[in-house]
Amino acid sequence: MPLPKDLIRISPTTWELPVTFKKGMLVPARIIASEKLINAMEDAVFEQAANVACLSGITGYSYCMPDGHWGYGFPIGGLAAMDPERGVISPGGIGFDINCGMRLVLTNLTEEEVRPRLHDLVNRLFSRIPTGVGCHGTLKVKESEFRHIAEQGSRWCLKKGYAVAEDLELTEEGGCFTGGDSAKVSNKAIERGLEQLGTLGSGNHYCEIQVARPENVLDQKIARSFGITIPNQVVIMFHCGSRGFGHQIATDYLQRFLKVMGPKYGLSVTDRELACAPFRSPEGQDYYAAMKCAVNMAFANRQMILHRIREVFSDIFHRDPFDLGLRMLYDVAHNTAKLERHLIDGAPRELLVHRKGATRSLGPGSPELPACYRESGQPVIIGGSMETGSYLLSGMTGSNATFATTAHGSGRTMSRHQAKKLFRGDRLQQQLEQRGIYIMTDSLGGLAEEAGGAYKDIDEVAAVTELAGLSKRIVKLLPMGNIKG
């Protein structure tokens, strides 16, 4: 597909659509990409980034990260910072899977120690961490307890013995967005979330045993500061969010915003998937409080999964999980909106930052980081496909230009429907096992959707984020075993 004729390359990694590209644009749209990645982007990415640039109160630029592809309303990889006093909040800028995010866990085990027990570990993880559409977790709580979880996030897990204090210190915002109000959440959403704590779900969600080989450690000093200290060290990465609970909250408020957006507030959007409300309006504040509940449920969900991982490794190796070095490295969200302070024209301003398939990436020295990461910058976790590996990176000061944001994954190159036509899940599973990657899945069709060939080149995406000054590559992590929905 030819690129839009208005697209201007303003640096080796930044492309810009001026406000003349589409009627109603308030700011230019910028896409972070190499020539290879920009030429592979769908037309919809340019249209959606331009649509976002039309939203009331947008500040600076509408951005799309190098893993960008079509999404609901915003492109996946989309980023917009809004003036909270005159701008809007849009569920399409956060996604249905609110606080979908990544968690990386260290071990002090090596590939040589784990490989002989890999099948046992993957099989046991698959039995202990429910996967698939609509799956239910093993933790049963009453509605009143679930409402506490939605307001407290990982803090609830700590009180109940499913976390240690360090887990919360190494989670974005301590594992709780303050201000969550479960009174703003529908009964239907509560009902959907009630039995989903500690579950992965389906789609591109996974839990993966990975290895950091010496040749893939790209910055020894920062890798050591992150806890990657021994050759062929094994780590565990997982990716999931707020499940049906967050999906229902997004659905409820999209419908509510569509009813008031024009008649009550005189707002119009170029795409109804960008339904929104003024951030300071009663409807905007209600959604923000409900969204925080989904954020907190997702933090608790990932914490419960970590608890199960610790149990499984302890059972298999007959040792205490902390003797096995099962410590958090970091947990970071990539589907949220949050009030943050950023420098605009040299002066600090509070902005409502929407990240939709985009990761916060604080550079060295940020006071918002745990003390152990202030020198290196924030750990950034970019998940790739189960075939090609993933990256651990660190935030760079250049990310100030993108409101401290970088990519979140590889980014799809084709739809799930197309992938299922091109790949067969059973063959893929066999081929991967021959390559030393053991996979358990709830759905072979779902496995085909996640084939490596359905994604962009993760090496290219990670390299572009570094070249753009957003996040520095520290370690490439290769898959050994994986459970998928």
UniProtKB/TrEMBL annotation:
Highest taxon listed in the record's lineage: Bacteria
Alphabetical list of InterPro entries matching this protein: RtcB, RtcB-like_sf
UniProt entry tagged with the keyword Cell inner membrane: no
Catalytic activity: a 3'-end 2',3'-cyclophospho-ribonucleotide-RNA + a 5'-end dephospho-ribonucleoside-RNA + GTP + H2O = a ribonucleotidyl-ribonucleotide-RNA + GMP + diphosphate + H(+); a 3'-end 3'-phospho-ribonucleotide-RNA + a 5'-end dephospho-ribonucleoside-RNA + GTP = a ribonucleotidyl-ribonucleotide-RNA + GMP + diphosphate
Keywords: GTP-binding, Ligase, Manganese, Metal-binding, Nucleotide-binding, RNA repair
Residues annotated to bind GMP: 204-208, 334-335, 383-386, 390, 408-411, 484
Molecular function as annotated in GO: GTP binding; metal ion binding; RNA ligase (ATP) activity; RNA ligase (GTP) activity
Record text on cofactor binding: Binds 2 manganese ions per subunit.
Cofactor(s) listed in the protein's UniProt record: Mn(2+)
Entry annotation: catalytic residues: 408
Binding-site residues for Mn(2+) 1, renumbered to this chain: 97, 205
Family (UniProt): Belongs to the RtcB family.
Subunit comment: Monomer.
Protein name stated in the entry: tRNA-splicing ligase RtcB
Gene name of this polypeptide: rtcB
